[in-house]
Amino acid sequence: MRYLEDFRPGTVVELGAWTFTAEEIVAFARDYDPQPFHLDAAAGEASLFGGLAASGWHVACAWMRLWIDLQARETERALARGEEPPVPGPSPGFDDMRWTKPVLAGRTITYRSTLTGGRTTRSRPGWGILDSLNEGFDETGARVFHFTGHVMWPCRPPTATEPGADPDHPA
Amino acid sequence: MRYLEDFRPGTVVELGAWTFTAEEIVAFARDYDPQPFHLDAAAGEASLFGGLAASGWHVACAWMRLWIDLQARETERALARGEEPPVPGPSPGFDDMRWTKPVLAGRTITYRSTLTGGRTTRSRPGWGILDSLNEGFDETGARVFHFTGHVMWPCRPPTATEPGADPDHPA
Lengths: 171, 171
Description:
Two copies of one chain form a homodimer.
Chain A: E1 12-19, H1 22-32, H2 36-39, H3 41-45, H4 56-80, E2 93-99, E3 108-120, E4 127-137, E5 143-154
Antiparallel strand pairs in A: 1-3, 2-5, 3-4, 4-5
């Protein structure tokens, strides 16, 4: 895993894929978005969507799960290398969330995150914010979902290997 | 229920409240956001949040559920009056989603939606888009969550009671 200073704008991270089964679409919708086109195939076919369609929040939550799973794999790899893995912080928010095509039952969506920028924060020393464009694509390559993400990320801590970081061994 | 033309900017709609139990916070996080501070009280206390905290997506999904429940109640009322209720369309997207305070286990969040504008669309005759500021507040009145929403909404259909709508009875 990397610190804020290690990320370069333009870096693309493949997050993996999520298949939206009819069962999971309906289960999510029953809890959080019980609209007819998310609950029933016939109602979906009669709607603007043309079929049983996943809630937009479900499509967003699948992105979140894949992103967290990626961080977990990165943490395991860092530990295997004997490194102390940074722990990402929370997200202050997201912008420009768009659902541009329906995600119908049975579709597999592939998610990608592209780093667009990183900055330190004055309010929380030791932390910065990473900005990213996050996208989901269907099997034809058509983009179905995207948003701009922000996440708090730890800065590289000062160590004795960095010039000036160790008062006993000034650069 | 009302058509696009019936909404006035500034109208405030109270959506109701949602209590985030520890059980539901953990269940949601296991499926979609398995970060330590969403899964475990001790990990939450050691985090920036200071306690077991609901996933931001969970806080957003509770808003969605309350909004849908409100539409269902409005539909029932319209049917009871003998009216044909309009059926809301999907959302093209959301903007400026912010989680400004953690929602810790046991907290009750009250949600409110304020209409900020409405417009017809050229691409889909008969439909318009309603814009709204959506907010969640904790028991102290502090705002914990907000975003700008957009939803497709049906325009009032032409009827014989409106001047010029019936070619046999022109105004």
